[in-house]
Structure formats: C-alpha cells, structure tokens
Design a protein that fits this description.
This protein is mostly helical. Helix content is about 45%, strand content about 0%. It has a domain of about 55 residues.
C-alpha cells in the first residue's frame, strides 16, 4: 500500500502507529492472532465441582460388553484356538530370527573378507616367495652366509684415545720409589700413604719426642721432672691401634 511506507529519508525512524492500515486488514482475533492471557484477564480460578466416586468406575463405559468381555477380556478361558495362534506367532518369530541370523552372518563374513584383503598376514604376503624356495639347490643353500647374532648387538664404535697429561706420567714414574711429589699447583697426594716414606716419618717422630724430653728434663734448674727412659719404655709398650679398630670404635660410639 502506498500509505504503508514511511518517508524515504535515509536514517529516519518510521512511526508505524501513525501509518494507515492497508485495505481489507483485520486486526487481532479477526485475522487469527492469539495473544497470551494473564490471571488478571480471566480473574480468580473457580474450584472444581465435586464428582461422585462412581464416575471413576471405568468398567461401565460399555453398557453391553463392559471391560471384561470382548477382545480385551483377560479372564477368558485359554482354548485350542488361542494355543494354535500362539504357536503360529512363535513359528513366525523363529523364522524371522533365522532369516536375520543368516543375513547377519553373511554381512559379517563379507566384512571379514574385505578386512583380510586390506590387511593381509605376513605369511600370506610372502607365500609366492616361499613357493620359489623349492627351486633352490643345495649349493645355493650352502652359499647363504650365517647371520649369527650380530643383528641384536649394538654397532661397535671407533676407539677413542686421549693423550695422558704429563702430571700423570710423572706420578706413574715416581709412584713405586716411595718419593714425595709436590704438585706445582699445590694440593694433596693422589692416594694418601703411597708417596710417603713411613720409616723417615717414624725417625722424625722419635727425634721430636727426644728433644721434648730433653727440654722438659732441664726446664727447672737442672731438676728432672720426667724420666726419659721410663717414658720411652712406656711409649714402646703401647699397642698402636689400626685404622680398622679405630673405625670400629667410632661406629660403636655412634650406636651408643
């Protein structure tokens, strides 16, 4: 309708309430429209009327047959016709089940055959090559080399040789002579006791003890405070404990 269109100005809002309705227009329910209804439109609800309990008896819906007669009767006698009908339906069910079973087995066999065609076994892949082995002579069999167990071993790596440092060579050259080697960079010996002369250490220790005894004996205006001979005798009679005994004593102390 020409009046149904608003102004042709771009961006202008159209007031549809001010537009004239087209011809033959029927608003509201006249054109089949149905809106929602609220409680305020229909007012408060009315209570349902009291219905007698006899109305709930569905057995009287048919005045002639009722609910206990006819096709839906449940209390009728089970006669030969009913038994024959049940047997017929059971045979039909068995026949349909056998038919479905045959079709199902055929589909499963077809699917299995397609799967084996797409994924053949290794024995089937080399079946033609196995047949050709019948034409191999004994000399050709003997010429086949033995593989052994090299397939499960790791490949051998090339030997790597690293030149030894000069300090290691010097240490090895003087290790059996019992000499003390002083590292130019400082530090202790590689293995304690291997480069130490124990005889010289014992002689030096005896000399130090003798000097201490001489100094103590003449410390108080010529009076002897310690008997040098008795002290040396006591020192010789002492039993030196080995490293193993010392370690055992330390372990016992830790346990206690």
């Amino acid at each position: 309708h020409p009046n149904a269109r608003g102004p042709g100005v771009p961006g202008a809002k159209i007031d549809f309430n001010a537009l004239k309705a087209p011809a033959n227009y029927r608003p509201g329910l006249g054109r089949g429209a149905s809106g929602f209804t609220t409680r305020s439109d229909i007012g408060p609800s009315m209570p349902a009327p009291d219905v007698p309990k006899e109305a709930d008896d569905e057995g009287k819906f048919d005045a002639f047959l009722g609910n206990d007669s006819g096709v839906l009767a449940g209390s009728g006698a089970y006669d030969e016709e009913d038994r024959e009908a049940d047997q017929i339906w059971e045979q039909v069910d068995q026949r349909m089940e056998e038919r479905r079973k045959t079709q199902r087995e055929a589909k499963e066999a077809e699917a299995l055959e397609k799967f084996r065609e797409r994924n053949p076994k290794i024995s089937e892949q080399f079946a033609d090559l196995k047949r050709k082995l019948t034409s191999v002579s004994e000399s050709e069999w003997d010429a086949i080399p033995d593989i052994g167990d090299t397939t499960i071993r790791k490949p051998k790596r090339a030997a790597i040789f690293t030149p030894a440092p000069d300090s290691l060579l010097a240490r090895a050259a003087g290790g059996g002579l019992g000499n003390t080697v002083v590292e130019p960079e400082g530090g202790a010996s590689i293995v304690p006791g291997t480069a130490t002369d124990l005889t010289a250490v014992g002689q030096g220790r005896s000399t130090v003890v003798q000097l201490n005894l001489d100094r103590v004996s003449d410390s108080v205006s010529g009076q002897t405070v310690v008997d040098p001979k008795g002290y040396l005798t006591d020192m010789k009679s002492m039993v030196l404990k080995s490293d193993a005994e010392v370690s055992d004593i330390k372990k016992a102390r830790l346990l206690l």
